[in-house]
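Write out the 3D structure for:
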Amino acid sequence: MTLRPARDWCRFAQMGGLVASLALGSIHGVVLAAVLGRRQRHRRANEYLAAVLAAIALLLLDGCLRASGAIVSHPHLIGLTAWVPFVLGPLVYLYVREMTAPDPASLRPASRHFAVPLAYLVLLLVTFYPRSASYKLTVAGHNAPWFVSAAEIALLGYGISYSIATLVLLHRHRAHVQALYSNLRGVSLRWLLVLAALNALVWVTALVAFVVRVTGVTEAAAASAIVPIGSTVVIFVIGYFQLGQPVIFDTPAVPMEPVEVARRSSPAYARARLSEDDAAALEARIRAAMTEQRLYQRPGLTLAELADKVAATPHELSQVLSTRFERNFYAFINEHRIEHVKAGLAATDRSVLDLAFEAGFQSKSTFNSAFRKATGTTPSDFRQRATR
């Protein structure tokens, strides 16, 4: 028996570790997908994320087979998951869309997002899957035909496009949330931003791996391992964060009389604008709610609650905040909270956090960020200057 060179043993050990990590990630993805698929609350969103996990698990299994060399002895396994990456971008986008939609039932059908993956699967069924084992080994080898690289480029462009669309959706979502809530803690869905950023990072990494492989900077196997390893990390991050993640627009509807329901659902109601006199009267009621009732001190104050207190609809309240105060709801309420803290810092020796929580802030970090943005200084520095 001859001993393997040290370099071969090192490479063998690294490959074994890669196979093990890919297998573990795949199993973990399947388990998480099964758990999410059984959750009844927000079922459609969970189904999208379960599909994401299942798709990644399939890709990790494929990577495991490649790393172990199983596809050499079973060539007909080659390409079975080639269509799967095309569904990842749409699935992540649809999951984020479902989680951030005020009324998920009104969303456009999701089927159109899967036209490209379906077309590619049909193409594979017609042109590749029926081919011989030797042909598939050639395609999977170092001298792959041109159309393999073309398909990779199309996939990268498709995936990155959906990643950008997901990030744009989250940006719009943040503006919408600020129009409804005075505190973003528990409703900002920071987890979705983490998911979207990880998704974008995997696609960018895939692009880098493609360039590295094509230019021959490093071995093809090493470049190909980057994306599966990144996908494994995504699986574990999703498992850690998602299971306890709340959905934002999950407040029970306030019962209304049938006539009121019909009135609010009419197009005329959606386009209606207050007259100048009505807007001025509503502005006065809003100011009284802030200065006399100090409603901003309610940590969970929402646009709908304030609208109810000032005898207006959320639409009318938003209109007046936008046209007369030139603020969205979040900025308007937190402006009053900052003024409350500033007055307390100048007139008392109470602790900063005590004043912040009394004003309606829910966390130290949120308060500090808002205070610095509004005043350009820290609460301690503000107090020192105000008490000189």
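The chain has two domains: 14-244, 260-386.
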